[in-house]
């Protein structure tokens, strides 16, 4: 199991001060043994508590300010032309020393309109064609007829690609055309575990086996006292969870009646949740410790408790292949 940090960068306040605070938090996370930093993206018509657009631009800025591995969770394909994405992701991989993981999701037709691209966007077969184009671009030699990204990524074949999605076809795409599956924050545990099982089944291997990745993002508030952790979560996660709820997307298409926050509680409770994920074949969890409005001291306390009491139980317990790919080796 690998543990990283998922960042919330809001369009409701100036960007640079947020990023500066984030870099300070990432330095603390690295000291505690976390291995990666992940950023999502959204394209809004009005200010929202998360995310910013242009995830590759944000990660490019972070590449010069942290030595952690970097990931997109997730980049929305409908905001990009496949060819331009091949160039920009390869360049970002160079900037972060080959430590990029590219998490991809489809996004809505509205996102394509805001990005000035055809509203149909990649879907189904076109999504698959985009994945093939990326691999071809990152594997081809200059001077051939294949699309070539110059400069190329650090490793031939390019960064690891993870694919998200709530349906069985998404798990199949992740297993056959990508390198792993990504479950978003708003996937309930039942959906995450279902998609993990489908992914490993498509791969024909045991859950958590060699060469595959199932990653997810989870809100995380940790305190020595369980009731205090839940009270802090109720207070500081509201803006983010309301964002999902208002769009009918909290915890999947048919989410639970009550809020599900499996990574809120004491260190022992967090440890138990991670153990359940490992049994289900999840290999990487990114913790959202500082959603919009969370006091820095609350995020620091969570990082410190996870770093001291949880992470040592799980660090370096996934397969060798998964570890080296996230470390950029």
Automatic annotation (TrEMBL):
**The Luciferase-like domain, residue ranges:** 13-283
Keyword Repeat: yes or no? no
A Pfam family assignment: Bac_luciferase
Organism equals: Nonomuraea glycinis
> Source organism's superkingdom?
Bacteria
Task: Note whether Kinase occurs among the keywords.
Answer: no
Gene3D superfamilies according to UniProt: Luciferase-like domain
Q: Which UniProt keywords apply?
A: Monooxygenase, Oxidoreductase
The record's GO CC annotations read: cytosol
For this chain, one GO molecular function annotation is: monooxygenase activity
Give the protein's recorded name: Luciferase-like domain-containing protein
């Amino acid at each position: 199991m690998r543990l990283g940090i998922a960042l919330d960068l809001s369009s409701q306040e100036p960007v640079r001060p947020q990023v500066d605070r984030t870099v300070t938090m990432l330095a603390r996370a690295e000291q505690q043994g976390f291995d990666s930093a992940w950023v999502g993206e959204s394209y809004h018509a009005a200010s929202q508590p998360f995310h910013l657009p242009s995830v590759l631009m944000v990660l490019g800025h972070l590449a010069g300010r942290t030595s952690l591995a970097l990931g997109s969770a997730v980049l929305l394909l409908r905001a990009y032309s496949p060819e331009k994405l091949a160039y920009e992701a390869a360049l970002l991989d160079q900037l972060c020393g080959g430590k990029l993981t590219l998490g991809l999701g489809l996004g809505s037709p509205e996102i394509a309109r805001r990005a000035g691209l055809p509203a149909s966007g990649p879907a189904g077969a076109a999504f698959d064609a985009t994945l093939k184009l990326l691999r071809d671009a990152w594997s081809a030699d200059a001077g051939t007829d294949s699309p070539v990204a110059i400069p190329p990524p650090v490793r031939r074949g390019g960064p690891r690609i993870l694919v998200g999605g709530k349906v069985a076809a998404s798990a199949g795409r992740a297993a056959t055309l990508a390198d792993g599956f990504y479950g978003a924050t708003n996937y309930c545990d039942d959906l995450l575990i279902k998609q993990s099982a489908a992914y490993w089944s498509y791969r024909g291997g045991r859950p958590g086996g060699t060469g595959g990745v199932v990653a997810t993002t989870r809100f995380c508030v940790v305190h020595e006292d369980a009731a205090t952790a839940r009270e802090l979560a109720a207070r500081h996660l509201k803006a983010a969870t309301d964002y999902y709820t208002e769009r009918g997307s909290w915890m999947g298409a048919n989410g639970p009646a009550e809020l599900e926050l499996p990574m809120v509680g004491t260190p022992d409770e967090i440890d138990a949740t991670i153990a359940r994920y490992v049994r289900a074949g999840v290999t990487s969890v990114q913790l959202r410790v500082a959603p919009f409005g969370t006091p820095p001291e609350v995020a620091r306390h969570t990082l410190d408790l996870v770093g001291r009491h949880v992470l040592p139980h799980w660090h370096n317990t996934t397969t060798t292949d998964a570890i080296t790919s996230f470390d950029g080796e």
